[in-house]
Amino acid sequence: EKGNYPHFMLKEIFEQPETVENAIRGRLDHEMASAILSGIGLSPRELLQIGHIVIAGCGSSMHAGLVGEYYFEDLAGISTSVEQAAEFRYRNPIIEPNTLVIPISQSGETADTIAAVREAAAKGAIVTALCNVVGSTIAREAGRGIYLHAGPEISVASTKAFLSQVVVLLLFALLLGRNRRLSRSRGAELVAEIEQIPDLIREVLEQALEIKKIASRYAHVDDFFFIGRGCLYPTALEGALKLKEISYIHAEGYHAAELKHGPISLLDEKHPVMALANDIPGRDKILGNIQECRARKAPVVAIATRGDRAIRDLTQDVIEIPPCSRFVAPLPTAVALQLFAYYIAAERGCEIDQPRNLAKSVTVE
Ligand code: F6R
């Protein structure tokens, strides 16, 4: 039931401190400064043999995978690629020996992701799935995996499942990293950062009214660009997807460096830009991108680390995020983007929980 919330989407956004806690519970190993993920069914030796990771998914689940790519490469030093599941299934992909394929799916019933699991298994990959729905087709067929424990997600637009996917990918990368080159002290730092995530999300939720106010100034627009770098690049893709699917505003996510390679020609006062400018590596470059947007009169909403004065000098519409490391930054940032999309859609009177033409799980290709 929706309780006091007007929509399931808002309820699910506000549940996220708890759903993320559920995704983490029992999975941190303080002693070893690592993670415990028994469902993956791989011994430390088998983990050590993994030479390459392929993540397959669709929509928001693919975006979570794109965040995961940074984690696996940076923390575990394992080369990782992320595939749209339909592309993976039809491209006759090359699966090197010792490849781990990670299908990601909230529902566990997405047709293309199911087909990707079958393709991967047929080609001899080790398959470990990330699913939310217990006993779903992907969870069963993969045979091993990690459940998200986000509880039923009713809103068609994914929110809490996306966050749990990102958290579980971070836990998995921590485990693989500690199994290899990641030092104990770096592992301990990450454990502490992961434990902080629910509070970071709470701090963003406390600003819902402020985000609503900013959103109301943009509810009339027809187009929106979202830009980010590093882990915040896939976060920008996810923010744009959230906005377009529930508000019907045309929204595009871009790597900030791509602006100059085309989309900047569109920028003017009618093309606002959401810039993910948290204080993590790349922030100075984003500052430059914001200046480029402002020079073309594009209104800019910035997500910034609390107290970042330089950004306030460039735009009045700033959504503040508590300070956090670059690996956890996608989580509170995604929550701010969910609220932003939600309040715009609400102001436009959209059918938020059931956007037109969309189904909760895409069981046909
Ligand atoms: C977006 C959204 C979709 C799903 C996609 C995959 O908000 O919900 O893009 O993420 O259809 O669904 P699952 O994760 O069930 O495979």
From TrEMBL:
Q: Any idea which UniProt keywords this protein has?
A: Aminotransferase, Glutamine amidotransferase, Repeat, Transferase
Write down the EC number.
Answer: 2.6.1.16
Instruction: List the GO terms this entry assigns under cellular component, sorted alphabetically.
Output: cytosol
Question: An example of a Gene Ontology BP annotation on this entry?
Answer: fructose 6-phosphate metabolic process
The record's top EC class is transferase
Q: What is this protein called?
A: Glutamine--fructose-6-phosphate aminotransferase [isomerizing]
Give the catalysed reaction(s), semicolon-separated: D-fructose 6-phosphate + L-glutamine = D-glucosamine 6-phosphate + L-glutamate
| MF (Gene Ontology) | carbohydrate derivative binding; glutamine-fructose-6-phosphate transaminase (isomerizing) activity
The protein's organism comes out as: Victivallis lenta
| Entire protein: shown range | 87 to 451 of 451
Name all SIS domain ranges.
43-182, 214-355
